[in-house]
Amino acid sequence: MTTTTDTKPAIELLGLTKRFGRTTAVDDLSLRVAPGSTFGLIGPNGAGKTTTIKMLMGVLTPTLGLARALGIDAEVEPLTLKQRVGYVPEAHHMDRWMRVREVVAFCRSLYVSWNEDTCREMLDRFELDESKKVKQLSKGMLVKLSLVLAVSHEPELLVLDEPMAGLDPLAREEFLDGVLRTICERGQTVLFSTHSLDDVQRLADTVGILHGGRLLVHRNIEELLATTKRLRATLTNGRVPDRLPDNLIWQRVEGREWLVTVGEFTEETAQRLRAEEGVGHVEVIDLGLEDLFKDFIRGQRAVS
Prior knowledge:
Layout: E1 11-20, E2 23-33, E3 38-42, H1 49-56, E4 64-69, E5 72-73, H2 78-84, E6 85-88, H3 100-108, H4 116-125, H5 139-151, E7 157-161, H6 169-185, E8 189-193, H7 197-203, E9 206-211, E10 214-220, H8 221-227, E11 229-235, E12 248-254, E13 257-262, H9 267-274, E14 279-286, H10 289-303
Parallel strand pairs: 3-8, 3-9, 6-7, 7-8
Antiparallel strand pairs: 1-2, 1-4, 4-5, 9-10, 11-13, 11-14, 12-13
Helix pairs in contact: 4-5
């Protein structure tokens, strides 16, 4: 995937907080996404992913903090933001009486950078019937139309909130490999939230894990997978050592088996564990993104 030497972040969140009454949906969230990168935002339901994206796009006003896309604060320059950013929301809002061709024509008139070839190609790829009214479209077809509108003006930043939800398997594959991969290779920045961890591991450079409105981790995916390991140890006396490993993410004891997931793993981590009294065989296990994600969330739930 293409990267750039530009040091100005494409996305910048500083102490971003959103409260709804007594409920804190996003809690002091700070992160930076480099231009030209693809960032996957993951988390369980209610983690704050959609709320974060809505604040970035100016749909919601932050309680505290700041959100900038391409250096633009949506509250200050909403029209500039819309010209330069493509956005597919979780819920698709279009006038139900309009036909597909009318929706496309309306959006075409709003953007100075509209690429008609891209629009035509995606309409054909997704087999969208331009004569149909929005109210006649299935959920999957609405998603496809939203994607066409978001991509056709060739945005510098593409923000996608659960973009594959409602797509049939073929359309999903076409979007991932035919559209999103092309965008990534052009050096455009992409932020997408999803429950599909396979998609994140397949396409993203970096990943952020949200839980309870807080950012648990924001790392390059390859580095995260290389430095996060699960250790399977045998407890010869059936008791967990008093001194736990550094950077503990999650642990579970079943009989004499002790499973421990740690971050910033080095071989010294395993050696120190083997030297603990009452610890027998220690096995180091590589994790995929899905198991890693589950362990981060399990660890948080265990202490909350």
